Amino acid sequence: MSTQTEAADLDPVERKAQQKAWNWYDWANSAFYTTVLSVMFAPYMITVTGRAAGCTDADSTCDKTVSVLGLHLAAGSLPSYLTSFATISSAFVLPVVGAFVDRSDHKKRIMGAFAMAGALCAALLFFLRDDDWQIGAVAVVLSSILAGCSLIAYYAILVDISTEDERDDVSSRGWAWGYLGGGLLLAVDLGIFLGHDAIGIDEGLAVRLSLLSAAVWWAGFTLIPLIRLTDRPARHVVVNEGGLWWRSFGQLWETLKELRGYPMTLTFLLAYVFFNDGIQTVIYAASTYGSKQLGIGQSVLIATILLIQFVAFGGALFFGRLAARFGSYRCILYGNVAWMVVVVLTIALPAGNVALFVVIAVAIGIVLGGTQALSRSFFSLLIPAGREGEYFSLYGAAERGTSWLGTLVFGLVFQITGSYRPAVFALIVFFGVGALLLLRLDPRRGIEDAGNRVPAVV
Predict the structure, then answer these.
(1) For position 402, what pLDDT does the model report?
(2) Residue 60 pLDDT more than 60?
(3) Which of 143, 144, 296, 438 could form a disulfide with 86 if both were Cys (CB 3.0 to 4.6 A apart)?
(4) What DSSP designation does 33 have?
(5) Does residue 346 fall inside a structural domain?
(6) Which stretches are transmembrane (predicted)?
């Protein structure tokens, strides 16, 4: 017997208003992920850490180290280590947060609290200057973990404000807004960075202002969903003894045990681990492949990063429409096939051909926005009612806990072969395994096992 979500009882006009308010948080937090984590932080952190290690700003190959908790780490590697530490820490923290979210009647407030705390930590990056790298290290780790925590509550709210048939459209619009918002701020920040001389500031201040702008954007636009969303009571909460945090840990353990009783949900999580790792590595490796293997200039690479952001906006909306006709499951499956085609075409790109490089970037943008948006909405259908926080935390942990694997494979293959072409081609394995696991998944059975109503099109 399937059960309806509480959202089905809301007036359609009220649901639409809540969904529009919900979309604003994608717009808000994407600035942090795009401007800070994807573009600005790592190169600037390497410069600041290098000064502390005794390197000069002109020495791009300095291998001197800094001491971090007694470990001597290369200045140029510190941002990667910080990102990995935050990622692995999140994999442990998020499931507990998810259990807490499900037991609370205030998902909106939890999302807002984590978001504001994360934005505050991100704002501390403005003080990353000269050779004072420590504040940046602490700030980026805390803001990354807090951002992930806010998303657990945010994803759980999706189920409260949409019916099963609406999920793909709502999630796709959210991802689209995220790419658009992140792209717009990044365009402004890159303009400030590239034109810093014209406005009378140095390069370091231009970067610090960009990092601060992402924090202000994140906090400022989070106010919209905080004001407009309505908290709803927790549903189907399992009664456990003890305080709230103790009950959260206990319920997490029960969820991990019960997950075996939802084989389709588990299968999708495993598939997501692989194909999402492939997606993240393609994003990570794109600029390296373009500059080192194809000889593409820095200005073209910057323009391409922006292009992918804006194309992904359209890609998310396009895949949302495809899902309305063919179902999200099929779109995700064929999206994996599209990723494999992109990988094959990428390794065949001739060096120096900017036009073809841009064409591949457009293809990446289209499939990038679509697969990520629909993965979120499809997974929501595989979650038992009232357990959205817990299961979305496992979804986040699956994403973050193994997101180093693709970059490791990429690095190892390059080290063995001395070429980035076979390193990129190796990523096809991640999409291939993801596709094979998706083929083993029965979407209708998974939705029914979770007690949800099967949408008109799966």
Answers:
(1) 59
(2) no
(3) 144
(4) I
(5) yes
(6) 81-101, 110-128, 134-157, 177-199, 205-227, 266-287, 299-319, 331-349, 355-379, 391-414, 420-439
Amino acid at position 405, single letter: L
Mean pLDDT of the chain: 88
pLDDT at 246: 58
Residue carrying the six token digits 């038992």: 384
Specify the DSSP class assigned to residue 239: P
Gap between the Cα atoms of 117 and 387, Å rounded: 25
SS3 83: helix
pLDDT in tens, 314-350: 999 999 999 999 999 999 999 999 999 999 999 999 9
Element containing residue 227 per DSSP (H, E): helix 203-228
Is the pLDDT at 300 greater than 80? The verdict is yes
Q: Where are the alpha helices (DSSP H) in 259-404?
A: 263-288, 298-326, 328-347, 354-381, 388-401
User: In CATH, what number is assigned to the domain containing residue 412?
Assistant: 1.20.1250.20
Mean pLDDT of 297-307: 86
Asked whether residue 244 carries a pLDDT value surpassing 70, the answer given is no
Q: How far apart are CA 308 and CA 365, in angstroms?
A: 5
Structure tokens given for 336: 């994996």
Residue 189 inside a domain? The answer is yes
**Distance from C-alpha of 155 to C-alpha of 393, rounded to nearest angstrom:** 9
Q: Is the pTM of this model over 0.85?
A: yes
**Is residue 232 in some structural domain?**
yes
Range of the domain at 413: 6-449
- Give the CB-side neighbour count of residue 2, counting CA atoms within 13 A: 17
Say which DSSP state 289 is in: I
Residue of 374, 347, 354 whose CA lies nearest to 307: 354
Residues in the chain: 458
Amino acid, single-letter form, for residue 301: L
pLDDT of residue 3: 44
Buried b (16+ CB within 10 A) or exposed e, 438-454: beebebeebbbbbbbbb
Q: Domain count of the chain?
A: 1
Residue 267 lies in a domain: yes
pLDDT at position 133? 92
Candidates 312, 320, 9; CA nearest to 182 is 312
CA dihedral 4, 391, 100, 154 (to 10 degrees): -70
